[in-house]
Amino acid sequence: MTPFPPVEVTVYGYDCDAFGHLNQAAMLTLLERARWDALARGPGMDLFDRNGVWPVVRKTTIEYHAPAYARDVLRVETAVAHRGTTSMTLRHAVRRVSDNVQVADAEMVFVCIDRLGRATPLPDEIARYLGPPPPRPGSGHQPLRVPAGDVELAVDVRGEGLPVLFVHGFPFDRTVWRHQLAALSRVRRIAPDLRGVGGSGAPPTSDGYALARYADDLIAVLDAVGVRDAVVCGLSMGGYVTFELLRRHPERVRALILAGTKTEPDSAEGKRDRDELVRLVERQGADALVERLLPRLVAPATQTTQPEVTEQVREMVRRWAVPALVGAMRAMRNRPDSADTLGAVRLPTLVLVGTDDAIAPPAGALAMAKLVPGAQYHVVPAAGHLAPLEQPLVTSRLLADFLGSIS
């Protein structure tokens, strides 16, 4: 069931061009009239205003099938084609009432913004009106299975073009990149689950995990998909794995994207904290870990305004085997200082950090960016340690701009 009832609108003379046809600009106005008419029949035309947000058109595609003329009555049927965290896509079918001829199809992508023009999650009232998100195209997509030493990895591979290898952090999986995998349609997106995580196989003990093993696993992934070198995009622990990849296989890295990560090793206090978390996981499992870490993983505002993000974090953590959690924490505890590794890089580099990242703060990210000549540095507003999930539009746009500059 669509929340939008069919609406009939009349084509007026001023909607038409010199030849008497409904013109393109007027078609957009007509669709706008139909949407507001539908709102008037439903929750009210002030639905957005009373929630302090506004739907802004980001993309419109219209396919014309037949002309329409002055005094024609057109029926507009509207369906929700997609609903994301901050966006929605509406699909319109326009037919002439008199003969049921299809005049046009249109698809419009809207982004929900606040009064300062920032992308913001759809308020609960609007989300309820739109209904549950429709199944995403490709939601039945099966990952590629890649042998990597003693395990088999699940790898999401999409699209063609410049290869980009997305390396998730701890304690996440490849779905942390779900918005970027959907949005960056002009590049080849390669996103594995690391060993012991999500759909990948797990060594039976925590001894099967190390930064070197993770890095070698990534090489197995690139070999399996026929990629000689790739842009490597590492988030959090994924950045530590990327540094290890630079040490072990520098020829396989074409460019760098470092998000929410840092070069320095754990301090003595940090190592004690890791050891405490290891003991916590061994005693109480993944749920205890996520409740301990969650306040540091996302911005304070995210916890209150985007509950779906915090729930996805919980879901990702539950997809880790306990030995994998323990092994990853020990690998991070013992990681080397990577400042010299990054300082030797002469590759296109982008450094991203959230304004509220409590784990890898902006000051450290800026210092890291200064190690690479010509590196780009961007702070993602209203994001914590998980900018790709918390602010997917901004993050995807920054990635797209960077990738466009090197492709």
Mean pLDDT: 91
Count of strand segments: 13
Structural class: alpha/beta
Give the SSE string.
EHEEEEHEEEHEHEHEHHHHHHEHEHH
What is the global morphology? elongated
The largest sheet is: 8 strands, mixed
How much helicity do the residues have? Answer: 25-40%
Radius of gyration: 24 Å
The low-confidence parts are: 136-140
- Count of helices? 14
Hey, roughly how much beta strand do the residues contain?
Answer: 15-25%
| Widest β-sheet, arrangement of strands | 6-7-9-8-10-11-12-13
Measured between the Cα atoms of the first and last residue, the distance is 43 Å
Report what the structure shows.
The structure is a single chain. 36% of the residues lie in helices and 24% in strands. It is an alpha/beta fold. The strands form two sheets. It has an eight-stranded mixed sheet with strand order 6-7-9-8-10-11-12-13, sandwiched between helices. A five-stranded antiparallel sheet has the order 1-3-4-5-2, with helices on one face. About 1% of the residues have low confidence.
